[in-house]
């Protein structure tokens, strides 16, 4: 984005904030209180904003600012512990009630993408959107075989709108990293890059369809979660056709209670689903706000989740997965020394960190929250104290874990809404203990051996050449070391012992190869 366009966008953002009276929110902060008189100079505060509740103004401003700001509002809508109730109620409307674009435009986009008229693809197609969000909107339809589906269509020009604001985020992140004292540690440029990558993925509905198919296979016939089936015939980069599901929105607590849904089991299963995705499958739904989650009808005492919208999916590499699991398990066991050691081992804090000091700091932050239900825990204060601890010990942000942290943030918020007495720790601890035991047990070792045997057998014929090359290099190294030893003797310096020589190591390698090869020769 050109500098002039950035200035124009910043001016537009400030204009929208002023238009909806959000300058009052900004100027109410302690830092800007001396400038509070400026609110009286805002003409919109003289009439239009006076009778509008603050939650409505915040929601309207986020809608006007664009998709990235709407997503920010969606994340905050699950946090009644951090925001007042009236603001949370309005932000919840951003989940699926963003102002839609005309159905005729959506129909034209579908026909252009599929190369067929809508009437040739569907028995019925409803021009009125079923739901509308920041990236896309959804229409109901019926296939020619009578199957009910929903058709998701990207918003027109959404790529340009997102890229415009992402470019602006890069500028702000660059300034923060350069001039902010904590810029290097928090790595804002890396965080924005990670954020941009997931946004770009979300704009490819073919990728979303593939993610939905993978998640459906992972939970096929599971009592915990149902994922609808993708219709690949009419799915394109900007159009997704997927099975229609019928359920109760997860945020509709009153209806869930009327249907007799066991909210305690529902909340516990939400935690189980999250940890199953992260640690069993290493593939998790990373946009779990209430607009994307439903509860199936029919079995209220054995409730099943229904998932939609798979545009943002997260993965972890085995390294981060193992360290994360061990960290959480040590945390649940209140083994704060192990938590401190794991942070150093994984490189999340500098290697010169004093373990005892770091352990004491973690204990001070975490100990007060155990054995307490979610309703009695202030996660806002907890996060603030964790950030203070991270700053003290120069802990760097891990961009690859930001998406996971955001998802856990959403899961915990959902649990708070469904069943405030949920014991998050006792629900998650058995799962993690079982996973760690399986990962470090004999069965997992045998599984990895079986998995790698074809690769080892493929490389086995190359072993003689590799062994010859290695021994040749070791011989040359030994010759050089012998020369150095002779020089050392002349100078009365200690020479290398015979068992430290490369020849001894090479002899051991040859013996091992012969022992391993003997059973194969016998066969």
How would you portray this structure in words?
The chain is built from 22 helices and 11 strands. Strands 1, 2, 3, 4 and 6 form a 5-stranded antiparallel sheet that branches. By secondary structure, it is of the alpha+beta class. The longest helix is centred in the last third of the chain and has 28 residues.
Radius of gyration: 29 Å
Distance between the termini: 68 Å
Shape: globular
The largest sheet, given as strand count, sense and whether it forms a barrel, is: 5 strands, antiparallel
**Which strand-content bin applies to the residues?**
5-15%
Structural class: alpha+beta
Number of helices in the DSSP assignment: 22
Total beta-strand segments: 11
Low-pLDDT windows of residues: 495-505, 513-523
- Work out the helicity level: 55-70%
Mean pLDDT: 76
């Amino acid at each position: 984005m050109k500098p002039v366009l950035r200035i124009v966008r910043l001016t537009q953002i400030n204009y929208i904030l002023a238009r909806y009276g959000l300058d009052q929110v900004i100027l109410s902060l302690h830092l800007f209180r001396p400038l509070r008189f400026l609110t009286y100079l805002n003409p919109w505060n003289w009439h239009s904003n006076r009778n509008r509740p603050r939650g409505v103004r915040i929601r309207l401003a986020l809608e006007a600012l664009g998709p990235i700001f709407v997503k920010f509002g969606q994340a905050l809508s699950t946090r009644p512990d951090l925001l007042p109730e009236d603001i949370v109620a309005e932000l919840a409307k951003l989940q699926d009630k963003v102002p839609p674009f005309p159905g005729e435009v959506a129909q034209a986009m579908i026909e252009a993408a599929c190369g067929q008229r809508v009437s040739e693809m569907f028995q019925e197609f409803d021009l009125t959107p079923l739901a509308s969000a920041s990236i896309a909107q959804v229409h109901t339809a019926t296939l020619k075989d009578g199957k009910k589906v929903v058709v998701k269509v990207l918003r027109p020009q959404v790529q340009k709108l997102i890229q415009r604001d992402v470019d602006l985020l890069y500028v702000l992140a660059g300034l923060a990293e350069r001039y902010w004292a904590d810029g290097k540690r928090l790595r804002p440029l890396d965080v924005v890059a990670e954020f941009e990558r997931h946004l770009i993925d979300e704009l490819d509905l073919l990728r979303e369809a593939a993610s939905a198919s993978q998640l459906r296979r992972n939970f096929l016939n599971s009592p915990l979660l149902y994922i609808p089936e993708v219709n690949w015939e009419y799915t394109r980069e900007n159009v997704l056709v997927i099975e229609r599901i019928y359920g109760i929105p997860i945020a509709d607590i009153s209806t869930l209670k009327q249907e007799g849904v066991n909210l305690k089991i529902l909340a516990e299963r939400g935690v189980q689903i999250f940890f199953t995705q992260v640690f069993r499958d290493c593939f998790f739904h990373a946009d779990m706000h209430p607009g994307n989650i439903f509860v199936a009808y029919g079995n209220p005492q054995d409730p099943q989740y229904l998932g939609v919208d798979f545009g943002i999916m997260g993965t972890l590499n085995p390294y981060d997965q193992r360290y994360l699991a061990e960290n959480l398990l040590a945390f649940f066991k209140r083994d704060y020394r192990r938590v401190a050691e794991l942070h150093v081992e994984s490189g999340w804090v500098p290697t010169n960190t004093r373990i005892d000091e770091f352990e004491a700091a973690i204990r001070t932050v975490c100990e007060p929250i155990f054995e307490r239900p979610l309703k009695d825990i202030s996660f806002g204060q907890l996060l603030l104290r964790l950030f203070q601890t991270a700053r003290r010990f120069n802990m760097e942000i891990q961009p690859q874990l930001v998406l996971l942290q955001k998802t856990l943030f959403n899961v915990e918020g959902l649990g708070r809404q469904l069943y405030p007495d949920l014991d998050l720790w006792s629900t998650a601890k058995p799962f993690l203990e079982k996973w760690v035991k399986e990962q470090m047990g004999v069965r997992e070792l045998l599984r990895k051996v079986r998995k790698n045997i074809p690769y080892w057998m493929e490389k086995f014929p190359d072993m003689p050449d590799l062994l010859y090359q290695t021994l040749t290099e070791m011989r040359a190294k030994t010759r050089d070391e012998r020369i150095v030893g002779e020089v050392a003797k002349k100078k009365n310096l200690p020479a290398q012992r015979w068992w430290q020589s490369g020849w001894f190591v090479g002899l051991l390698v040859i013996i091992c190869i012969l022992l391993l090869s003997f059973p194969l020769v016998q066969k």
